[in-house]
Amino acid sequence: MIFQHLEPLDTAQRRAVGSAGGLVRVRAGAGTGKTRVLTTRIAYLIDSGVDPSTIFATTFTKDAALEMKGRVKDLIPGVVGKVNICTLHSMAARILLEFWEQAGLPERRLNIAEDSEAREVLSHVVGEVRGRVKPGAEASEEANEQFQNDLSDIMKKISRWKENGITAWEVNSNPDLSAEKKAVAEIYQAYQTEMLKRSLMDFGDLTMRAVGLLETNHEVRWLVSNQVQWMLVDEFQDTNRVQLKLLSLVTSTHQNLLVVGDDDQSLYSFRGALPFLMDNLNSYLEEVSGTGDISIYDVSLVTNRRCTDQVLDAANKIVGYNQRKIPKELRSGRSGAPVAVLGSASETHEAETVAARVSELIASGVKPEEIAILARTGYALEPVNRALLRAKIPHTRQSMLPFREREEVLDVMAYLKLALNHSDAHAFQRIASRPARGLGAVAIETIIKMAAANNVGFPHALEALAATGVLTANAKKGVLSLARHLQVLSDAASNLEDSKELLAYVLDEIGYRKWATGRKNAAPTLQLSFQAFREIAEDTPAFIDFMTESALVGDIGGKSEIGVHLGTIHGAKGLEWDHVFLVAFEEGILPSKRALKEAALGGDPSNPLAYHGGGGLQEERRLAHVALTRARHTATISFAMARGKGKTRSESKPSRFIREAGLIAPTTHQTLVMKQPAGAKKAKARKPALW
């Protein structure tokens, strides 16, 4: 059986799968079969006699976790439910739920604040601490925009500290902080106090709370680390400091940790991902664990099974400009079309050119689903979206919003939050008129005040309002219907009903699905979101666990099943297509203006309190590398010489990465494909005219 699982693998993959215990580092370049290695490793361990319940595998996204579970199920049917496969945030949440009393929680429940709720708390705190309140309705658009930008900046700084495991107390006690950061540190402390008062935690609190529990409670740490006998981590290069500390703590007893990653695919420095983590694994682990030098068993996967050598050559050359300890080695041995570079006079002309190329591919027999158009930012895709619509090319636009920030997700979660706490004013305000029930803003505010004044839940407050006789017949009917629905949900949650039942009640009995789908401006993500909810409910039938998992889901959706895929490079990570177009390959977009500024600022990445926190040019090169390696057969880079955003238009230059890839940027009047005719002498290098 073990031989059967190893047979399809190459020599390097077999070494990784069959490695002994201890710390194993698998450097896995793009398209080298890292998911196959991880899933086969799980099957190998089980076939070797390891108890499936002692195997833990973590991934970066919920999508990846579901895919891994499916593959393990195919390899060894019947055991996938026993193996622990989840995201790192989910792992932290499970620890807190299992040991909720030791973690200081008032009940076995995690009240995870959605982004809008966390911003509301922060806005309140800024008013309390700095005396700067949210501008009123009469304030100018500029004043409102400035206030919201300031909130975003503060939240980013707080999130960065949390991603590095730095508490509010530690920040405030640091004597070397700048005056600006001291001001934010004061708000951080007040924000944490207010969140605690409201029994809330934000996304960044989860891992910090779990790490704090394991560090201070030795009994809990022993129980958890004794259970985690084999730990496997996917996309390890995107791990931040506090997550690495969590991994160190949960593997402290058995110390069997296998990590799979590629520093050249690290794209999340803005979320605290540690720079060059794969290269510097030993020193980072020493830092978070306090132990001495750790022996590492190394395996490198360098055979790409996705791209042609022409695509890989360009992708490898770009990241070859980065600082590195080991030269980039990634090969496929499969030849194909050279990477094409298209130059256009404007973003409109660029979009029309790309749309025409896509039409040609489809006319030649290529399925639209095997074509992707990617960009560094969402706004750069707008002209392409319009061009595809004009050309009547079927396409699907990737949602720019993370799953947990989508309107329909916030609505469904608000209903389910009221099932757990029928006094949740934030949740009630969101769903009181979704679907419409004849309630206006004044009526909703009155209900919230009645519930608070009488210390009752919203089912009772709604019934009390209906009894006053001030409502119209239609509004009274709607109010009593909502009161009944909320009571049914509350009773179901109290009776530990299956999460699928509660979800179905919200979507179908309450009528949310019909209402949301029938709206004139129905969200394009509706069906994907409902499908994601169903998958999470199947995976986590216990309602409390379902609520936690749903609140933790970030980006979800994956590859388009209908039409050409339009999306960002970040959203394309882990996906692949036959033909990939990379638009807006320009200075200021890729690399971005922010990255160019960060490169100038510099800073010490090892000091999270002082580091500016961006990936700079090196991360932008990794983005370009990831973008190119999404292509199985052909990759086409395009740029415009002028681009507009809103009323502003400006000249632009082709990205320096075109030159670094060994390609030449054509003039706007020609399309140049770097192709050498068979038997021809090597052409003399042309000097790029557009830099």
Automatic annotation (TrEMBL):
EC number: 5.6.2.4
GO biological process assignments: recombinational repair
Coiled-coil features, chain-numbered ranges: 137-164
One GO cellular component, as annotated: cytosol
UniProt family annotation: Belongs to the helicase family. UvrD subfamily.
Known catalytic reactions: Couples ATP hydrolysis with the unwinding of duplex DNA by translocating in the 3'-5' direction; ATP + H2O = ADP + phosphate + H(+)
UniProt cross-references to CDD domains, sorted A to Z: DEXQc_UvrD
Superkingdom of the organism of origin: Bacteria
Name of the protein in question: DNA 3'-5' helicase
Pfam families per UniProt: UvrD-helicase (PF00580), UvrD_C (PF13361)
Enzyme class: isomerase
Molecular function GO terms recorded: 3'-5' DNA helicase activity; ATP binding; ATP hydrolysis activity; DNA binding
Keyword annotations of the record: ATP-binding, Coiled coil, DNA-binding, Helicase, Hydrolase, Isomerase, Nucleotide-binding
Residues noted as binding ATP in the record, renumbered to the chain: A28, G29, A30, G31, T32, G33, K34, T35
UvrD-like helicase ATP-binding domain residues: 7-308
UvrD-like helicase C-terminal domain: residues covered: 309-574
